[in-house]
Design a protein that fits this description.
The chain is α+β, with helices and mostly antiparallel strands and 226 residues long. Helix content is 33%, strand content 27%. It has one domain. Strand 1 and strand 2 (21-27) form a beta hairpin.
């Protein structure tokens, strides 16, 4: 008898109120929707999607991850694991490689908190999340803005920018390579880009911040133009 295989998302959720713990789950729907559903009255802060991957058999991948991480499970009845997030992401990427259809691969990693740590006073306060989203064909920067209306409605605007226009050192190759993993490209964005570069190619900073950054880096780019 054939076993039904369903495509869906495997996600990693984190919560500021649960430091060091990662929820590993799967869903047929959007992972952000699942994170919102878990934000109940018993949880003081919202869950955030730190990473997600789309796979042709999401339940199988989730089971493999739970099995590999069994010794780090916080509670046998819960999908929470006390394990470094970056190491779980690496494990997901390794187990989720689709050998039958590599072109269908999809992964997304949130870089919001790392950017907030570095540029908290400059970030547009209406931004709720920033992710690097990647397939075998594209590397995107995805920004989510939130706007509260009448104290109970919350609209979201999501914009994806193809990062292929950013060149590497030889000015002929893309800086964000499709052959690199999504975690490598996320690290490039958060660690290798300076504030001026981010200001020039994204909408992450407020207008006031852009003016301040421009003044800070003005001597540098004026020198480069000479």
């Amino acid at each position: 008898m054939d076993i039904a295989v369903a495509s869906g998302y495997v996600y990693l959720l984190i919560n500021p109120s649960m430091p060091g713990m990662v929820k590993v789950g799967c869903t047929l729907r959007d992972s952000k929707f699942r994170a919102r559903k878990l934000y109940t009255t018993g949880v003081p802060t919202p869950f955030e999607v730190a990473f997600e991957v789309f796979t042709e058999d999401h339940e199988k991948l989730e089971g493999e991850l739970h099995s590999r991480l069994a010794n780090f499970r916080v509670n046998d009845d819960r999908e929470f694991f006390r394990y470094p997030l970056k190491d779980i992401i690496s494990l997901v990427l390794d187990l989720s490689k689709n050998k039958n259809d590599p072109d269908s691969e999809f992964g997304a990693v949130s870089i919001f908190h790392r950017l907030k740590e570095k540029y908290n006073n400059w970030m547009d306060p209406s931004i709720a999340d920033v992710r690097i989203v990647q397939t075998n064909e594209r590397v995107w920067l995805e920004i989510t803005w939130e706007k509260t209306i009448a104290d109970y409605l919350k609209d979201q605007t999501i914009k994806r920018t193809d990062l292929a226009f950013i060149c590497g050192d030889d000015e002929e190759s893309n800086y964000f390579q499709r052959d690199d993993t999504v975690t490598i490209n996320a690290k490039k964005f958060t660690e290798d880009f300076d504030a001026y570069s981010i200001m020039m190619v994204t909408d992450l900073f407020s207008d006031a911040a852009c003016r301040e950054i421009g003044e800070i880096f003005k001597p540098q780019w004026q020198s480069a133009e000479k």
